[in-house]
Amino acid sequence: MRGRAGAGAVLVLGVQLPALWLAAAVEVYTSKEVVAVNGTNQRLKCTFSSSSPISQQLSVTWNFQPEDLSSHEPVFYYLKQPYQPPSGRFKERVTWDGNIERNDVSIIIWNLQPTDNGTFTCQVTNWPDVYGTIGEVRLQVVQKVNFSEIHFLAIAIGSASVLMIIVVTAVIICRQRRKKAQEKRTEVADTEL
């Protein structure tokens, strides 16, 4: 009888240990898609949760996969302090904007270009939580809207709004005049009787 109970306990532990291991992993959270205007700066938000206290060995790795699916490029690295890339497209264009105590490992990309379209990945390891999810942010850089296009759109919307107000006002005035004329006819008919 003891042998079966012991085997049962080992079996239960064998099933639960992998579940406990997965529960101890680092979870990473990002905004899945970001749209930014060409030439502007954009904060790429990345936060995490860990079942372990924040350790001195916590590290953050940001990478970039261009839309053309060419090779991954390093963007940023953090281990006790932020390290900018020594070369590549993000050299001197990325800064640390995180706060480890608040579980925030965000960065800012400066002077966005259409070539920055692609997927940024954020990975956090917090010893002993070395496994976990990798956060992804898909960045789409769009061209600036010309002033003339904005001006034209504002005029079109403004004109349509003014026209709508005029039509509604005209309808209200016509109804009031009809109502007064109806009342006058009713009054004249009453006096004739």
Automatic annotation (TrEMBL):
Would the keyword Thylakoid turn up in this protein's UniProt record?
no
Q: Which GO terms describe its biological process?
A: cell-cell adhesion
Could you tell me the keywords of this UniProt record?
Disulfide bond, Glycoprotein, Immunoglobulin domain, Membrane, Signal, Transmembrane, Transmembrane helix
- Pfam families xref list: V-set (PF07686)
List the subcellular locations.
Membrane
Ranges for domain Ig-like: 18-140
User: Where is it mainly found?
Assistant: membrane
Is Iron given among the entry's keywords? no
Q: Which GO terms describe its cellular component?
A: plasma membrane
Question: Which N-terminal residues, if any, form the signal peptide?
Answer: 1-25
Membrane association type: Single-pass type I membrane protein
| Regions crossing the membrane | 150-174
The record's InterPro entries line, in alphabetical order, gives:
Ig-like_dom, Ig-like_dom_sf, Ig-like_fold, Ig_sub, Ig_V-set, MPZL2_Ig-like_dom, Myelin_P0-rel
Question: What protein family is recorded?
Answer: Belongs to the myelin P0 protein family.
Q: What is this protein called?
A: MPZL2 protein
What taxonomic lineage is listed for the species of origin?
A: Eukaryota, Metazoa, Chordata, Craniata, Vertebrata
The encoding gene: Mpzl2
